[in-house]
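Q: My labmate handed me this sequence with no annotations at all. I'd like to see what the chain might look like in three dimensions before we decide whether it's worth expressing. Could you predict it?
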Amino acid sequence: MLRDKNLIPLSHQHQHALALCVRIERASPIGNSDLAAWQGEITQQFHNEVSIHLAAEERVLFPAARRFGGLVPLVEELVADHIELRASFARAGVNEMSAADLAAFARSLSAHIRKEERQLFEQLQEFMDTDELATLGKELADALVDVGQACQLPSEITRLRPGK
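A: Here is what I predict for the chain of 164 residues:
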């Protein structure tokens, strides 16, 4: 299903996070000497975008979805994912992740994003009418106003290399 324009800002942010996940996956196994660089990038992305994104989903998107009884279990699952993801971001922030932890983090974040895109967003678009989606979009835009607009570039260590 084509993504409704009111959900596209979240989808764009999801693409940024998925790009990080793909790079982690392709770089794995990540050597011990590169762990700090990867964790630094994860932490930077959390501060620049992800923390605001998660809060916007929790303040705006999830309450809207809970209005539809069939979506409540999915929303509860997504909230639990947010708790686990924040714990992983916090571990990265203090350089406590191993190479295996980074790979598991990338899998978890990717699975969470796909759940939101393929299940939550799709169902919201079916359940909500045009006016409701427009209202949701405005509320999301207001909640996401503090997301940095700068392009975050990978470091020499975390960028994709040819053949990976």
